Amino acid sequence: GFGPDTTTEDPESGDWETQSGDQDSPSLPIIYDVQAGTFSRPDVHDLDGTDGGFVRARCMVATHARIFAGNLHSEGTYRYPSRIYWCGTDDEPDQPEVWESLNYIDVGADDGQEITAMLSFNDQILVFKNQSVWTLVGTDDTTFALYKLDDKLGTEGTYAATATSGKAWFLDQRTGVWEYDGAEFRNISEPIKDELLSNLNPDAAYKAVVA
Predict the structure, then answer these.
(1) pLDDT (0 to 100) of residue 28
(2) What is the mean pLDDT of the segment spanning 142-159?
């Protein structure tokens, strides 16, 4: 979402550069200080390796002692819809406010799609785009390997994908609800697929939630 402009009362005049601690938009990141018992809103991180601020991204997962953020903005200007950044350094991965400029991997760059959801799945990260599914294995840039699992399935909803107990489920607005077990995809909505899809508003598929 766009943050409100701090110089006007018009909420439609906000942009990516206006994030600050005194803004109230629920779409902005929040830091909770356990010792002080206070909340604050960090500035958008510049991805320059400094210690401070936090990235603004469509989706994130925490795994391998790091935070991985996909489809994000930087410095209020640059948007990376097919890129995943991870926090920390090689020596200290668990630093959520340190984001290096080169700590990223591109997922199907320039394919006309964007990252819509990410799941921690066993020892890997499942990455969903509008119409493709990928898996990212490894823990850093020296061990990462990226594989495309499917080039027809995908999801529009960040919350339309979930995983537990070695299986993942997601809604593809074109074909129904799918299950992935690490080896193959199975359409578990086949018996009700026609009714499910006929009642789905394709223009609001990004709002879908898998519970």
Answers:
(1) 65
(2) 94
Q: Report the C-alpha gap between 126 and 149 in whole angstroms.
A: 9
- 155-193 pLDDT, tens per residue? 999 999 999 989 999 999 999 999 999 999 999 999 999
Q: Which residue has the tokens 């990376």?
A: 80
What single string gives the DSSP state of each residue in the chain?
A: -PPPPTT-S-GGG--GGG--TT---TTS--EEETTTTEEE-PPBP-SSS-BS-B-EEEEEEEETTEEEEEEEEETTTEEEEEEEEE-S-SS----TTB--TT-EEESSTTSS--EEEEEEETTEEEEEETTEEEEEESSSTTT-EEEEEESS---S-TTSEEEETTEEEEEETTTEEEEE-SS-EEETTGGGHHHHHHTS-GGGGGG----
Q: Which pLDDT does position 75 carry in this prediction?
A: 63
- Looking at residue 193, what DSSP letter applies? H
With tokens 């009700």, the residue in question is 192
C-alpha pair distances (Å), 194 with each of 63, 91, 177: 37, 51, 11
Distance from C-alpha of 25 to C-alpha of 29, rounded to nearest angstrom: 9
pLDDT digits (tens, 9 = 90+) for 69-124: 999 877 666 789 999 999 998 888 889 999 999 999 999 988 999 999 999 999 99
Say if CB 185 and CB 137 are below 8 A apart: no
